[in-house]
Design a protein that fits this description.
A hairpin with a 2-residue loop joins strand 3 and strand 4. 37% of the residues lie in helices and 17% in strands. It is an alpha/beta fold and 457 residues long. A 7-stranded mixed β-sheet has the order 6-12-11-10-9-7-8, with helices on both faces. The protein binds ligand PLZ. Ligand PLZ binds next to helix 5.
């Protein structure tokens, strides 16, 4: 029923991309009958370990909506986990990807190179924090980028230990599972994990009340006493933790860590897989406090849905690796590179950093109003279009994952796709495509407010 561009949905033909009607439309219960049928096939063919947040099967997406095979049009407040920041099927991306796929699909950059890979690395050098000499290497997934960043740091320093933080999420491969904090569902029974990973406390203003300098001092004390700077290759941190619950560290925390790493020769790695590429209203979350990481990992938003990830770092660190030491069959695939160049073009043309700030300015006041009316919203936080609320039991800071699940289920029934997050499963997170129109954003907020009223009545 689908060809490449025109999609038959509920008897009418429509195109994906921004021309898709920007409306919430419910024609059936969620999930509808056609999705229910596919769900049966899914359950018979797909491994249980791979789950779905909401089993509606998608036929088209664009702007701020996802249209399912029953013809329902959902407001997308997740962007496929911070990926389609430029919107699904963004025209600049579609055009470049189609041209590339028709020209050639793959050569393997390690066998015979092509210009798109270089262009993406040049863009990364321009856009990432710092004006030092940089080099990049391209991969397929965020986890793969993180693994390679650690490999580079180990070679460059001749040291082995890695510092990670509470509430961290860095991926599901063996080394990145070790770096990820949360057991369920990411690590449970999947060990043994990679060694030489040490975890220290994060700054979590809502829960620890510490200022940034104090929180950094506490982390550094633990590092000094339990690991020893001279053994540490890298410190890796998400400037805003993603899966951990959109925790924005207290001001001064990140700069103090960067200073410490500089003094002790530890490679400071910012994992901006989730927070990067306009998501927080800057090209990178590091830009908010002007910190310059030695290495930055990117993925997700970089290519608007095409699988691409990157490690970008100081030339002298990146080039410490022996020739042939980094790579992979598909890393920097030409079609993904074309996607990235199209996505970056869209970000520039539509000034999506500014748009992310506008989204923040619409969302935060509305969510604060809701928080004032109910005693279950403990915290409203985030930057740009990376916004979250943390749900608690009334009058306490005790996490309320049950209520979080109820609010999310209500939103889903009403055609608003929202996601959860957080170590305690009690964070409602919002990651709308940056191209979402205001009226859809406001409508999503209306539904979220109704969800709170319905779930706390
Ligand atoms: N680093 C900061 O957010 C991916 C994971 C979803 P991959 N986050 C979404 C899930 O349940 O698997 C992520 C991230 C940060 C690394 C990663 C890993 O990126 O592209 O999923 O490997």
């Amino acid at each position: 029923m689908t060809d490449t561009v025109d999609i038959e949905v509920a008897g009418s033909t429509m195109q994906g991309g921004p021309s898709l009607p920007q409306e919430r439309r419910l024609l059936t219960a969620i999930p509808g009958p056609k999705s229910q049928d596919l769900l049966k096939r899914r359950n018979a063919a797909v491994a249980v370990g791979v789950s779905n947040v909401l089993p509606v099967f998608i036929a088209a997406g664009g702007g701020g909506v996802l249209v399912d095979i029953d013809g329902n049009s959902l407001i997308d407040m997740g962007s496929g986990i911070a990926v389609t920041s430029v919107g699904n099927a963004a025209p600049e991306l579609v055009e470049r990807v189609q041209a590339q796929v028709a020209a050639f699909t793959h050569t393997c950059f390690m066998v015979t190179p092509y210009e798109g890979y270089i262009e993406v690395c040049e863009e990364l050098a321009r856009l990432t924090p710092g004006d030092h000499d940089k080099r990049s290497a391209l991969f397929n997934s965020g986890a793969e980028a993180v693994e390679n960043a650690i490999k580079v740091a180990r070679v460059a320093t001749g040291r082995t230990a890695v510092i990670a933080f509470e509430h961290a999420y860095h991926g599901r491969t063996n080394l990145t599972m070790a770096l990820t904090a949360k057991n369920m569902p990411y690590k449970h029974n999947f060990g043994p994990f990679a060694s030489e990973v040490y975890r220290v406390p994060l700054s979590y203003p809502y829960r620890d009340g510490r200022d940034g300098a104090t929180a950094a001092r506490d982390a550094i004390t633990k590092i000094e006493k339990e690991v020893g700077a001279e053994n540490i290759a890298a410190m890796i941190i998400e400037p805003i933790s993603g899966e951990g619950g959109f925790i924005v560290p207290a001001q001064g925390f990140l700069p103090a860590l960067v200073d410490y790493c500089k003094e002790t020769g530890i490679v400071f790695i910012a994992d901006e897989v989730q927070s990067g590429f306009c998501r927080t209203g800057e090209w990178f979350a590091c830009d908010h406090e002007g910190i310059v990481p030695d290495i930055i990992t990117t993925a997700k938003g970089i290519a608007g849905g095409m699988p691409l990830a990157a490690v970008t770092g100081r030339a002298e660190l990146m080039d410490a690796v022996h020739k042939g030491g980094l790579g992979g069959t598909y890393g920097g695939n030409p079609v993904s590179c074309a996607g990235a160049l199209g996505a970056i073009e869209t970000m520039r043309k539509q000034n999506l950093n500014e748009r992310a700030v506008e989204i923040q300015e619409i969302m935060i006041p509305r969510l604060r109003e809701m928080a004032a009316k109910t005693d279950v919203i403990g915290d409203v936080r985030g930057l740009g279009a990376m916004i979250a609320v943390e749900l608690v039991h009334p009058g306490t800071k005790d996490p309320n994952p049950e209520l979080t699940a109820q609010v999310i289920a209500y939103c889903h029934q009403q055609g608003v796709l929202v996601l959860s997050a957080g170590t305690y499963g009690n964070v409602l997170r919002f990651l709308p495509p940056l191209v979402i129109p205001d009226h859809l954003l406001n409508e999503a907020l209306d539904i979220i407010e109704q969800a709170f009223l319905a779930s706390t009545a």
